[in-house]
Amino acid sequence: MTVVPQGGDVSRGGGGGSGTLYDVLDLILDRGLVIDVFVRVSLVGIEILKIDARVVVASVDTYLRFAEACNRLDLESGRKAPAQLTDVVGDTLESGAKGKSKGALGGAMEAVADSLTGGGKKRQADDDRAELEEGTDAEEREPVEERRSTRRASRRERER
Amino acid sequence: MAVYVYSITAEDHPVRLDGVEGVGEEPAELRKVVAGSLCAVVSDAPDGLRPKRRDVMAHQAVQERLMADGAVLPLRFGLTAPDDDAVRDALEQGSAQYTQRIEAVRGCAEYNLKASQDEDAILREILLESETARELNDRIRRGEATPDMPVQLGELVAGEVQARQEALASGVIEALRPHSREVSTAQPTGEDFLNVSFLVAEDQEELFLATQLSVTNQLGEGYTFRLSGPLPPYSFV
């Protein structure tokens, strides 16, 4: 099996300090040791994190939203050249069948390796981050080292 | 005087906290409360504490400093005890449990991995691979659909999205599990489909990171992985 890197923009770069904090916020606020006899100070805003939980709810509203998203989707936009399109569809059909007999990740990876992505959608983190009240010395320190491993490079795997 | 409690460590932990400040607008001094073989790191609790960025980061900074010198059990943000005696009582009561957890996380750090997938990308993938979905979509777009078709399409697609992302999430977790001691999954938020923490021993770190990178590379376009760590073991206490 050969991996053929297809170029493209490789990374959107790492986030700033606040992005780092955002990604560990749920750990600091929602996990960690709790000692029953201690009192948790009433922390307005913490619940906001949970409301945001992603659940694909089985409801007509959800279905209609997905249907609309599909209708709106420009299936052509991710296709750069007709030759490439033929390749990809061929690969997809092949890997779809192979996927069934492989492990979950293997199947998903093959399918995904051929996905026709247009532009990326930016994560909502910037907006969500606002839920954390700004302190005076907000941006001074980074709580953790983050390794942001965004890969936008287009790769295609083919079995020969 | 109420005290804010940051962490529990072993009594022989050096607890070097010079230059680190506690929570509050005018942070009170950080100090130790010792009971038997355990030690809690506390400060006088500020009035009206709220989850300000400054305070959350102060809480985190204390954990990180302690973690550099030995095993630490980080408390959840925002816990206060009525006074030092109450802290000592709590340490004594939970002594066996805390000692056991300190040993379990010794030499380890938490790595948290979150991942999201571009929605257009997954919808495209589904439409390309599912003939039924594609036909429904085409008929709706051409205006030839019966009224129930949008719901049919949506239901099909929603099911596919969920199944694919669950399979993908568990695939990623299983790929990394062998290089960790413990795994803790949590509810993903926002657009994420994965939110998982791994307890990784120091000597496994390199392999864990290499594997994570390799998984990210294999998945390629349309995915955003955010790995945070090494972190205090919030999810493993």
Automatic annotation (TrEMBL), chain A:
Task: Give residue spans, biased composition: Acidic residues.
Answer: 128-143
Q: Where in the cell is it found?
A: Gas vesicle shell
Question: Is Cell membrane there in the keyword field?
Answer: no
Give the keywords, sorted: Gas vesicle
Question: Region Disordered: start and end of each range?
Answer: 115-160
Q: Where is the composition biased (Basic residues)?
A: 149-160
- Its domain of life reads Bacteria
Database matches in Pfam families: Gas_vesicle (PF00741)
Record PROSITE patterns = GAS_VESICLE_A_1, GAS_VESICLE_A_2
Listed under subunit, the entry gives:
The gas vesicle shell is 2 nm thick and consists of a single layer of this protein. It forms helical ribs nearly perpendicular to the long axis of the vesicle.
The UniProt entry, under NCBIfam families, shows: PRK09368.1
Q: What is the role of this chain?
A: Gas vesicles are hollow, gas filled proteinaceous nanostructures found in some microorganisms. During planktonic growth they allow positioning of the organism at a favorable depth for light or nutrient acquisition. GvpA forms the protein shell.
Database matches in PANTHER family: GAS VESICLE PROTEIN A1 (PTHR35344:SF4), GAS VESICLE STRUCTURAL PROTEIN 2-RELATED (PTHR35344)
The text of the family note is: Belongs to the gas vesicle GvpA family.
Q: What is this protein called?
A: Gas vesicle protein A
Q: Which organism is it from?
A: Streptomyces kurssanovii
